[in-house]
Design a protein that fits this description.
Layout: H1 6-11, E1 19-22, E2 26-30, E3 38-44, H2 56-73, E4 80-83, E5 99-103, H3 111-114
Antiparallel strand pairs: 1-2, 2-3, 3-5, 4-5
Bound molecules: 2'-deoxyguanosine-5'-monophosphate.
């Protein structure tokens, strides 16, 4: 049988988290290694390995959840970055779908954006 991911164990109450918002379908909590003054993870309670496997109907509900979260955190006006690493090449470490919500300061531009794609081949 597949071993539970850390985030499934958090949902099950087996591991603690610093919770920010919760409803029937989703949970949001502080990232353990924050890379911005505000760094929150939003996850569905149901298990999906990554975004590629996610249910579009649940994604619609999750959009509302993340928008509500941004208001609660005071990020809706100042702005934030929303990231979901998907699969091996993205560097995904926890294989339970999650969105990073980063804000609280002017975020540096992603290095990948500055890289010359020609140099990658
Ligand atoms: P990713 O690389 O997209 O899979 O990011 C996984 C994130 O999860 C990473 O920023 C660190 C965070 N993380 C890992 N373990 C834990 C944990 O036990 N608790 C919390 N709150 N965050 C964790």
């Amino acid at each position: 049988m597949r071993e539970k991911t850390i985030f499934e164990r958090i949902v099950a109450g087996e591991l603690p988290c610093n919770k920010v918002l919760e409803d029937n379908d989703f949970l949001a909590f502080h990232d353990i290694h924050p890379r911005a003054p505000i760094h929150i993870l939003a996850i569905p309670k149901k298990h999906f390995k990554d975004f590629q496997e996610f249910d579009p109907e649940l994604m619609a509900k999750m959009t509302l959840f993340i928008q509500k979260l941004a208001v609660l955190l005071g990020l809706d006006k100042s702005g934030y970055r929303l990231i979901s690493n998907c699969g091996k090449n993205s560097g995904q470490e926890v294989f339970h779908l999650h969105f990073h919500i980063l804000g609280g300061f002017e975020l540096p531009k992603d290095k990948a954006e500055q890289a010359n794609p020609q140099a990658l081949f």
